[in-house]
Amino acid sequence: MNMMTLWHITGWGFAALALAALLVGFSKTAVSGANTVSLAVFAAVLPARASTGVLLPLLIAGDVLAVLTYRRHAHWPTLWRLFPAVAAGVVLGTLFLVWADDGVVRTSIGAILLLMAGITVWRRRTAAAPDEPDAVATRAGRLKARSYGVLGGFTTMVANAGGPVMSLYLLSAGFRKLGFLGTSAFFFLIVNLAKVPFSAGLGLIDGRSLLLDLALVAFVVPGALLGKWAVHRIDQRLFEQLVIAATVVGGLQLVLR
């Protein structure tokens, strides 16, 4: 029995998954948050819960490529402030997955993404000037980091949708393009690796899912190379607009599907 028969995937379905895998690579090295589109494609072609287990190893492959590309630009003080809250969010997301069905998962994540996008747009329009990354050491900054961290951990565990939440946090904290990409690259590599035991324990990662990953991972690499080429041709304002737009599109897809 071959891989496509095992998953009951048509030729068009596999082509859609391959394009989504390419977009995973592109999102990791260019427009973080764009992989919400990939999330929606995987959930449309595969069973929604199972799709998260297939997508996770592909995201890790993209994270490795992003770290190799932007490792010198990471802001580690921000990462250390985020990790405890993210860990709590991952645990909450695991508990949520124990009882939530596919419809509840999609609607919940989509609603969170749309809410966070709205808050980010409002904050950026009303703020006199963006904060510098070091400014998140203030009390208000720590509270914001914890709030986004819990939401990011929850959404990344439930539906691999933590990218938009953390993208919005990094934008609101005043990160420029390369600092944004370097910090998010290390963040998601560490978080996604930490999610593997939870996903395996829930039965989301198994031999079937890894077989499909083996067929799709080759498409992540050209996507990452395309993103590396494109990121230097996107100015800061357009970069921020694309991140927010990708978040809104992904949220709407999840809510309306």
Helix content: over 70%
Name the average pLDDT.
Answer: 82
Please provide the ordered H/E string of secondary-structure elements.
HHHHHHHHHHH
Alpha-carbon distance between the two ends = 31 Å
Sketch the major β-sheet: none
Report the radius of gyration as a whole number of Å. 17 Å
Number of helices: 11
The helix/strand class is mainly alpha
Total strands: the figure is 0
Low-confidence segments: none
- Anisotropy-based shape: globular
Identify the quaternary structure here: single chain
Q: What percent of residues are in strands?
A: under 5%
Q: In words, what does this structure look like?
A:
The protein is mainly alpha-helical and 257 residues long. Helices cover 82% and strands 0% of the residues. The chain has eleven helices and no strands. The chain has helices at residues 3-7, 11-29, 35-45, 48-70, 76-99, 102-126, 139-159, 162-172, 177-201, 207-231, 236-256. α2 runs antiparallel to α3. The longest helix is centred in the middle third of the chain and has 25 residues, at 102-126. It is globular. The chain starts with a helix and ends with a helix. The model has no long low-confidence stretch (mean pLDDT 82).
